[in-house]
Amino acid sequence: MVTLAQRIEELRTARGLSRPAAAAALGFPKGAFEKFETGRQTPTKDQQEKMANYFGVSLFYLRGESSDPTRQEDWMSGAVPQDEPVHVPTPAPRKAQPSAQPQGTVMDSVLSSKQVQDLLRSIVLDTLRSPEGQELIAKAVHRELLKQK
């Protein structure tokens, strides 16, 4: 798995920028990129967002959590045409099957854990607070307002 430090160096060199030039372009201290790329310092959340925007990648890609550099707004803008309503199919009702085994899966028991629920809530809220998440929310609200007219 790629680390944040490796991804920063990869993106900077792909742009053909020196460390001081990249720091100057983003308004960071002169030695910031050296510290980020050597792992001596982790960029703040704001610094990570600035870098992701500057390099045109998602935060997930920058952090090494994804191998897809596509930003969410880029991915979503092509997913649904702006003028067409979104159709979400409703699942067919499932027939109950008698079983001697208890109902529920391992995933049900994992998701019922308070720790997992808190972690998922935190991840979703962080994602929605990100610039990409805010833009997705704005697009969804805009679509809903268009539907109501």
General description of the model:
By secondary structure, the chain is mostly helical. The chain is built from nine helices and no strands. The N and C termini lie far apart (48 Å). The protein is extended, with a radius of gyration of 21 Å.
Compact description:
With 149 residues, the chain is mostly helical. The chain contains 9 helices and no strands.
Describe the secondary structure blueprint for this structure.
Blueprint: H1 4-14, H2 19-26, H3 32-38, H4 45-55, H5 59-62, H6 72-79, H7 106-111, H8 114-129, H9 131-148
Tell me the series of helices and strands, N- to C-terminal. HHHHHHHHH
- Tell how many strands the DSSP assignment holds: 0
Which residues form runs of ≥5 with pLDDT under 50?
Answer: none
Report the mean per-residue pLDDT as an integer. Answer: 81
The separation of the N and C termini measures 48 Å
CA gyration radius, whole angstroms = 21 Å
Largest sheet: none
Count, helices: 9
**Beta-strand level of the residues, as a percent range?**
under 5%
In one word, what is the shape?
extended
Helix content: 55-70%
Structural category is mainly alpha
